[in-house]
Amino acid sequence: MHPGHDRQGGGERDEPWVRETHCRVLSQGGSGAGGGILYCVGEVDLTLLKVRAQAGCGRLEVGGRLELPTEENEGEVSQILGVARYREMSNFAQSALIDVVKTIIGDLPKKYLSFYNRAGNLSLKFHAFQLLPGVGPSKATQMVKTRTRLGWETMAEVDEACTIDSTQLIAERLIEELIDPQITPSLLANVVRVPGV
Length: 197
What we know:
The chain is α+β, with helices and mostly antiparallel strands. It has helices spanning 91-107, 110-118, 137-146, 155-162, 166-179, 187-192; strands at 5-6, 13-14, 22-29, 37-42, 48-53, 65-67, 77-83.
């Protein structure tokens, strides 16, 4: 059975990790000889996952990329145990999350760059850039003024034009939302987990 579907009760329902094909390791419990339980974050939707690694995988590196199982492929993960909650993860996994999310953003920058290129006003007095930690109204205004009509092509261009660490700021905001899924407006819902992206 595909890891994104559950056939309980005769119906099929999508699991929160249905779009995830790979995850990045946050922490590993056990020696790895028996596979061990891993906390990971998915690359596509930044879904926090609790998974069981394949037996004999050995010690896995934090940030290491693992393929999730499908109907056609066993993957490097033997089983997706479910969605993980931030508060249930070890302190080690929690502290690794920011660096691993920054790595994902660096490796797959397109959707995150789209936030910087498309962000607009959320109200008359509040710009979407103000969702980022430490960005107030005057910084948001300065960021909008430096954005070209066609937008930025790389995160490095955003950094230089706005004198910010664009990857760090967006990663910090995403981590806040992973810790507290009730935060609105949500970059996870409106930028990261948008179908077709």
